[in-house]
Amino acid sequence: MRFDIVSLFPEFVAQLAAHGVVGRAGERGLLSLYGWNPRDFAEGNYRRVDDRPFGGGPGMVMLVDPLRAAIRAARAADPAPAKTIYLSPQGSCLTQAKVRDLASQPRLILLCGRYEGVDERLLQAEVDEEISIGDYVLSGGELAAAVLVDAVARLQEGALNDADSAEQDSFGSDGLLDCPHYTRPVEHELGAVPEVLLSGNHAEIARWRRMQALGRTWLRRPDLLDEAGLSKRDRALLEA
Ligand code: SAM
After folding, report:
1. Quick check: pTM over 0.80?
2. What is the rounded distance in angstroms from the CA atom of residue 153 to the CA atom of residue 172?
């Protein structure tokens, strides 16, 4: 999968590509990241990329032309069709279902705003979708792009060392939160590992984990249970 990130801070992209699951996915040839700096497409001695907002008010607005040229150059750099996404607090919220959908795309172009945002005409003409990472305002789209790339990268086949890992995480196909996890030592001053996990009885361990996942979801995110499509057995476990 290919990501093209349009950003005034292309070094940010290099950082993203250097670490963790995203870095490993890159090394394994599962994804590639390219940065496009609108300043490289800006004209004049000052290579201006922003200007004051019409109508007055604080801050600056990113100009149409450098952004449009950067997006178009990114689009032309590869023949695969690319969806163009603007990271924006006004977009629809990024969920794991959305991440799964994005992970099946061959390419994404991610536009990162700065200042007060981007001239609306550019968004109307060049952007397919606006995505938010939550109801708060960041000072730039780069962190939001990093969140999106990380979440999508770990769903690329072969990116995680254990293929089942993503499926067992919270918001997997069952829509529940993950169960609690324990590792060595068995006994610790903070408590002991639940005995069932040491029993070697795989059916009992699976049942315990399912109960924990159901219970946690019920306590912490009951809204998820409505969407989770629980079986009769799950309902019996919840009522137990
Ligand atoms: N004036 C804009 C508004 O209120 O909608 C906010 C501009 S914000 C200071 C600068 C940039 O950060 C935005 O253009 C966007 O790219 C990014 N950004 C801020 N919050 C975000 C969020 N919650 N999700 C995704 N991107 C965000």
Report:
1. yes
2. 15
